[in-house]
Structures are given as C-alpha cells and as structure tokens.
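Question (not urgent): is this output format expected?
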Amino acid sequence: MNERERIRLAIAEWKEKQLPSLKERRINMKLFTGIDHIIDIVGTRRSGKTYLMFLVAKKLFEQGFDRDSVIYINFENKALYPLNDRLLDELLNYVLEKKAEKSFLFLDEIHNISGWEGWTRTVYDDYKGKIKIVVSGSSSRIMAEEVSSLLTGRHVSLHLFPLDFRELLGFREVEVDGNLPPSRKKLAEIKALFEEYMKFGGFPEICLLEKGVRNDILRSYYDDILYKDIIRKFRVREVSIMENFARFFFSSVGAYFSFKRGKEHLESMGVNASTRTLLRYTSLLEEAFLFFFLPIFTRRVRDMLKYPRKIYCIDTGLRSAVSPFSEDSGRTMENIVFLKLKQMAFADPSLSVNYWKDRK
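Got this back:
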C-alpha cells in the first residue's frame, strides 16, 4: 500500500474504534479548546499519554465533534510502516477534503517520523484556528532544543507523570472531602492505599491490577523503557554497563550522585566504564524520563557544578520492582514529594526545584 492508502486505513480503523473505559485525570481542557497552540504531551512509557488523548477526544465528542473532525493516529502502528513524512501530507489532504469547521489531530508517538517538527509548524502557520494539533512522545527528544527552536511561540508542553496520590484515590474511587476531616475508617483506607502507592507507584494500569501481578508488569515496563526507548533506539553497545548503571541509580534514589561515585560502584562489580560513557548514559536515562538529577540550590553557577546532584526516579513502583532490596520508606516518600514538586515546576515555568544543603 502507498502512503495514501495506509493513512486512510488507519483513519478508518480509528472511526470504528470503541474508546476504552476511561478514568478521569486532572486536565485543563482550555489547552485543547481555548488556544491554537500545538500541544505536545511528553512523558515516560505507560504514564497514560494515549489515554489522555482518548479522554480529551471523548470530551470533544461530548461537545458535538465527530470522528471526521477528531482524528487519532498512532505512529507505532505497524500498519503505517514504513514511516515517512508523506504520511503526514496524506493526513492533511484527508482533513482538508472533509472541510470541517475545526479539526483536531491527535498524533501519538510522532517523534518516530523524521521531519514532523517542520510539518506541524507549517500546518500551524497555514491553518491556525482551523486545525489543532496534539502530539505525544516517550522521549524528551520531542522537547529537544532544535524542536523548541523550530516551534517557538507555537507550542505548549504538557508533561505527563504517573498518577500522583490524589489521582490514584480518584482511580480507586475513594472520595475525599476537602472541607471535612476523614472518618477513622476512611483514614485507615487512605493510609492503606498510600502504603500501596509507595510500593507500587502510580502507573495508571498498575493501580487497577491485582497486587500479585504488579511487579511482573512493572518489570516489563522497565524492560521496554530500557531496551526499546534507550538501548535499541540509541544503539547502546555496552549493554551490561547501561543495565548496571540504571540499577545503581534505582538503589541511590534520594542520594547524592557524582560520576566518580558511579564509576567506583561499577568498578566494585568488575565493570569498567569511562566517565564519558557514563555521562552519555546518564543523559539517555534522563531523556527517557526514567531518572531526574537535581542540582543544589545556589545563586552561583560554579557552585552548582561543583556539588553533586540528587537522584530521583519517575516512579517508586519501578524502583521496588527493579531494585527490591533498596526500599527505604524515607527516600521513597522524598521521591514522591519530589515528583509532585517537579510536576508543579513543569506546569509553572516560574518555579524551579533544587535541594538545599548548608555547611551543617
């Protein structure tokens, strides 16, 4: 099949698709209906990017839009392969043929198509107000400097994390009245769920599974992130070094990190790696949203570079599944607080997150 046939087959499948059962998440619909900007939804695998797109699409259907004006395409769909930018041109042709007053394009994992940035910019410039584009990606390359430069002033990034604890309560249908203290029974239920949250984290699917299978599914998530989003995509050759380095980070959540310490840890296991290699692997782990590296609070850039950074992971459940002997309730809670603060900082660019340490 040529590009026209492949993209129209994908649209036909979308028009016949039954949306899955969707749980509510806190979203600002004004981002999707109140502004013309391109919305890029970024986050790690399985954090709910696709379901968020479906949830927004559902709300648009409720407002009267139909499947010709609200189109979802997943660019990890093998039926679309081989991928190229002509698929995007054919998608635009289809939208223009339909002559809808307003169209919404949800383009999942769009970073798999080379040149998507220029295409989205052109569509935005030529059809602003008529075609709204929402894109997603599992890699922070969707936010890379060259992408931001090309789309400057035209896009808004929506960073999607696994569920925070309040969202988890909603997923588990536990209502909390903010005006009244919870009863003893409700408080006991909330505390039990928080214990679960610390151990199994906030990936949406995990929260609704039986406890006995959660660790197995979490390990499969981790394998997909490490081997598909990092090792395979970036052609990592020293696979064992990357594997051991990632496990080292999980065991070090909430601790201070320096490349010297990481190098010494690997050497103690008989693994030799150059600082240059570790620097690259750290960058890749960060790009895949698996880990965050937090600098010290200081007003002097030189001091920021001099002091070690603190390590945090995207989900405490992943840590429990990958490094079960590293569990520590204090560091786990610190990681949970960090993730909430990081979400707030992503939502409000005027905020930043750092750790504080003085001479004492």
